[in-house]
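Schema walk-through. Below, the input block comes first and the output block second. Nothing else is stored per chain. Lengths vary across the set, and this one has 208 residues.
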Amino acid sequence: MTEPSTRAAYDSVASLYAELFGNVLDTLPLERALLAAFADLVRAGGNGQVADVGCGPGHVTAHLRGLGLDVFGTDLSPEMIAIARRAHPDLRFDVGSMTALDLADGVLGGVLANYSFIHTPPAQLPAVFAEFARVLAPGGHLLLGFFAGDDPEPLEFDHKVAPAYWWSPESLANLVGQAGFVEVARLVRAANEGERGPQGQLLMRRQA
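--- output ---
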């Protein structure tokens, strides 16, 4: 799906999305644990600034700030950014594309892309992960949240907002690895009530 189409789709549901998912981390202990580990690793690396890429209404950005990180959010959807700024006026939120982040090379200690790359056609993802590698300092960490499938090939499905893809953790790790990352950890958990299938988290480190 193109960026303009994805932007329009999320603009149209921004308020409902914020209402439904603004407190979702309260119900996700495994994800909270991996976010805490991510925060620890970023701090240990000595560069605490983190970009929450595809931040939506800013709930995870705020959670990372609560974990002690210097974090800001960016999202394709101006409506999402407006909601995030109202909900968290003490945090920085910018409208922007994950394919062209307005950042110098190597300035970040961490990047979070929590279900924000799921609408990107697989052929375009190498450019996204290369952009993440560009803005991360050597040794910086990347945490990805995604819909976890079993098929080695990404499979498109009818996500409620915009078409999205299931990814097998192995295939996704291999693709991210081609951008200069090594795997640190992965998590796949069973679907909770209301979820359409297993959910995945992949933690990667940028090589020197």
